Amino acid sequence: MKIYLFLIIIFLFSLSQIKAQNTKQYQFGSWYEITASTKISDKFGFFGSLTSWNYKLPAENSHLLLAIVGVKYQLNPKTSVGLGYAYGDIDSSFEENDTPNIKEHRILEQLVFNHKLNKIKLSQRFRLEQRFLEYETENLLKHRLRYRFKGKIPINNTLFVSIYDEIHFYLNQFDFQQNRIFGGLGVSLNKNMSAEFGYARHSFKTKSYDRLSVQLNLKFNSRKKQKQ
């Protein structure tokens, strides 16, 4: 009961932050992502992703290009921890100008809980990030906490509905930074590959972006088969 109360509070806070924002909107943009994970043993595995945000469709005026690699350890069938590194190139200006982009080196730690509610697959991810940001005139270190709640609702053996909400706080002053909401349709292409297509709303304190989201998910099993 406590965890559900916590989730409700987080969700309501997210909505209040979005409603309080400036309503100035920009053109519909895009959010493309490839995720990959592999198991090398019953306990250890690797994960990674490549993300591209763009202010305009289909892939014009880049907002962010981010690459993540990491290692994970399975504590039990439902819980895992992970450690990773990310490199990002960020253009937060929206305008197409010659202002240098922000370069980012990021260290991340995460805790993931997976569970089921009947046939619905639920996932909770807590992630801590140390963001080393290189601006044109200065370098900054910002600590960020992220919480993501995701649901996967099967329609049949091939199709599913995917939804999630992820809220971000800066820990330096425990200040709201952004929120991401996604809803869409997924398709299982085979046992190692799935794709998701939908709508994402990316909300900051003073502005929000509506984006077409396309995601390709790859899963591999590199564990050696035991001899019979």
UniProtKB/TrEMBL annotation:
InterPro entries, sorted: DUF2490 (IPR019619)
Pfam families: DUF2490
Protein's UniProt name: DUF2490 domain-containing protein
